[in-house]
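pinned: reference chain
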Amino acid sequence: MLLAEDLLLLLTDDSSGRAALDGTRLDLALAGAVVLELATAGRVVVSEPGGAVRPGRLVVRDPSPTGDGVLDEALRRIGTRRPGKPQDHLPGLAKQLRPGLLDRLVGRGILRAEQGRVLGIFPTRSWPAVDSAHERDVRRGLVEVLALGRTPTPREAALVSLLGAVDQVPRVMAGSGLDKRELRRRARAIAAGEFAGEAVRKAVAAVTAATSAAVTAATSAAVVAGS
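pinned: its C-alpha cells
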C-alpha cells in the first residue's frame, strides 16, 4: 500500500464513504504523500546549497522504475519539469491522482464505489469501506506512536507529518483520550524528530511545509473567489 492510499483511507469516512476534506485540499495532501513516498525511498531529494541546482528544489536522484504506476508517473512528471520548489510540483502531481487511488482501493476490495443523487437530481459518488483491516492496522500504529510514545517508523512519521499539514491529526485520533492541542503538539514533535537519516528528514520537512503552504493558498483562493 502506498502512503497516499493510507492517507486517503484515513481521511475517508468508512460508513458514508465521503472525504473529511474538500477535494482541493485532499488532492494536494495526496500529492504530498506521493512525494514523501519517493523521498523516503531515496528516489527524490530536496537540493542543498552548493550543488548544481538551486537549494530547496525537488530533484530526481534515481529515475529507475519503482514497480508502481503511481510512483513511476510522479517520478516522470518531476523529472521532466524544470527543478522547482516542492509546492510548485504538487498541483501537477495531484491531477487525476485521487481517482486512480480510489480505483486501486476498489479493485483490492477495500472500498466500494457508490453512486447516488441529491434531491433526485444532482449525482453524487462515495466510497464506503468494505474491508477496514488495513486501515485499522495503520490507525493502531498511529495510536502507539502518538498516544503511547513508541518511536515511529519513517513511514509513520511521514504520515503523521502529512496529517498535521492538513490539521487532521485530532480527527484521525478521535477517542485517543488526548485533547486536540496535545495531539497537535505531539504530531509536531514527531515531524521534527530523529526518525530517519538527515536527507530523508529534510525532505519530509520540506514536503510537509510545501503541502501545508499549498493547502493554505488553495483555501485562501477559494475564500476570495467565493466572496
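why pinned: Residues 198-226 form the longest helix (29 residues). The chain has one domain: 3-218.
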